[in-house]
Every structure is written in structure tokens, then in C-alpha cells.
Amino acid sequence: MTAEATSSTAFGRDLILTDADFRRICQLIYDRAGIVLADNKREMVYSRLAKRLRLHGMSHFGEYLDRLARQPGAREWEAFTNALTTNLTAFFREAHHFPLLAAHVAGRREPVRVWCAAASTGEEPYSIAMTLSEALGPQLASQSRIVATDIDSDALGKARTGVYPLKQVLEMGEERARQFFLRGSGERIGLARVRQELMSMVEFRQLNLHDAQWPISGPFDVIFCRNIMIYFDKPSQAKILKHFVSYLKPDGLLITGHSENFTYISDDFVLRGQTVYTLRGAAQPKG
Fold it and tell me: What's the confidence (pLDDT) of residue 9?
């Protein structure tokens, strides 16, 4: 066994992940999804992909990667990508954005279109739907649409069910929980499901922001793209921001995550505060 392989089995590991394997994984996920993995993500890579190796009865990451290379159209590529995608989300996460959304659509007489570009397991798009329902009223909100996309097919599968732990749902407050969710009983006790009228506002679709073409149509009143661009390098961020321009209405909002700043990356957008951007030359948004 080489010194490189030996080091990879330290700390009781039963699978072999060499430095070359890790570099190869970093390149593959960058090419496929634009995700940049730093050296400190090696433990995460090992723990997440180890499940795939064990499922296939493999002991060496190199063997797994060779199999992927031999089968460019295999469904295992989707499992590989899902495993390396981070899904950290919550209902009304970064809560200050939702009153801004409500203020932006207040007084509208036509349906609103919102794109949630990192939908994960659904908490964010359903939070958007609740906000639209409260701001527009049930009738106009029911005609509005939220396109919720993510690269992770497993996360989208959970999002489509609209089922969450009741404890998680109650964290947003008893009133919202009662208005927008149904409590489970019997075998479903301890769970809550999004009400059908809210679910009907959201369309979940798989989409890779790193792709040259996106299988959705704009324009949108608001684009939520929060806490996903931090995983991309600056050239990828600039390309995605340039692509967003044609998907946003002239007076639309681009809402990003608290740790994301694109002021020096794109000339197309102007920061209006609280990580909310508008197209350059657009009027100051309401709220």
C-alpha cells in the first residue's frame, strides 16, 4: 500500500480515499455542478460518498470514480451530485427578506411570479408561498406561481411531499402553522403537511445553475438565490448573474444570502441593502 493510500485510511477509515481521488472528485463536481470544494471538505466528501461505495460493494474511491467515468450516462452520477450538495435550510430563514418580498408585491392586481433557485427540501419556497398568501390575499395568491428549482433530486422529492416534523413547523408560530399546515394523526402523528392550496402555488423542477441553458421561462418579479452562490467560484457567479438578467422583470428583485456580495462581480445589478439587488437603472424598490 502506498504512503498516500495509507494516510487515507487513518482514524479508523475502512475505505481508501487518496489525494488523487479527492482532487478528481473536486474536479468532477466542479465540472458537473460548478461547486468548488476546498481542501477542508475532504472529511465531508469521504462521509457522504462512502455510502455510495458501500452500496456498490467497493472499498476504493478510485474504483468508484472509474465506474462513473466508464458510464457517463449512468444514474449514479445523480447520486454522486446529490451526495455532494449541501441542503441547509429552514422555514423563514433569514427572516428579514420576507417582509421585503411582501412590500414589493403589496397592492398588485396581477399574479406574481417568483423563482426560488435553491429550493432544497422545500422550506424556502413554501415560506415564499405563505408570504404571498398573506400579502396578496388567498385569491390572487392562488393565481401566483413559484418556480422552485434545485440540482438535488432527493431534496426535491422531499419538497414535493410537503411533509415536515411538526416541531419544525411550529417554530414559525402557531398561527401560521394552523393556517398553512395540516397536523398528522395516527401513524403520521408528529408530522405536518403543507395545505393543498399552498402546494398548488409551487412548481418543483430540477435545474443545474451551472448549465448553459435553463429549462424555465421568465420573467420573474423576484428571484431568490440564497446561500448557493457561495459554493461557486467568481467566474461561475458572474456567468449566473449575467444569465439572471433576462429572467428578472425590469423592476424585479434579486434576493441573495447574508454572506454573498456581488457588488464587484456584476455590473448588471445594484445592491439596495440587506443583500437585495435590483437591475442597474431600475427604480428604488418599495419597502
Answer: 43
Query: How much helix, strand and coil, in percent to the nearest 5, is found in the chain?
Result: 45, 20, 35
Is 150 annotated for ligand binding? Answer: yes
At 140-161, the pLDDT tens digits run: 999 999 999 999 999 999 999 9
Residue 39 annotated as part of some ligand binding site: no
Does 284 have pLDDT greater than 80?
A: no
- In the structure grid, which three cell numbers stand for residue 34, read together? 460548478
Residue 80 burial class via C-beta count within 10 angstroms: exposed 0-12, middle 13-18, buried 19 and up: buried
To the nearest whole number, what is the mean pLDDT of the chain?
Answer: 91
Domains of the chain: 3-83 (1.10.155.10), 97-279 (3.40.50.150)
**pLDDT tens digit string along 95-133?**
999 999 999 999 999 999 999 999 999 999 999 999 999
**93 labelled ligand-binding:** yes
The answer to whether 42 and 34 have CB atoms below 8 angstroms apart is no
- Residue 239 to residue 231: CA distance in whole angstroms: 14
Nearest C-alpha neighbor of 201 from the set 259, 147, 278, 272: 147
Chain CA centroid to CA 146, Å: 14
pLDDT given for residue 2 in this prediction: 47
Q: Is 89 annotated in some ligand binding site?
A: yes
CA-based nearest residue to 222, from 149, 94, 113, 111: 113
19-33 helix and 61-70 helix, angle to the nearest 10 degrees: 40
Catalytic residues: 48, 150
What global pTM score does this model have? 0.87
Distant-in-sequence, close-in-space partners of 155: CB < 8 Å, separation ≥ 6: 82, 85, 87, 119, 120, 121, 122
pLDDT recorded at residue 58: 94
* Residue linked to cell 422555514: 91
Whether 261 has a binding-site annotation, put simply, is no
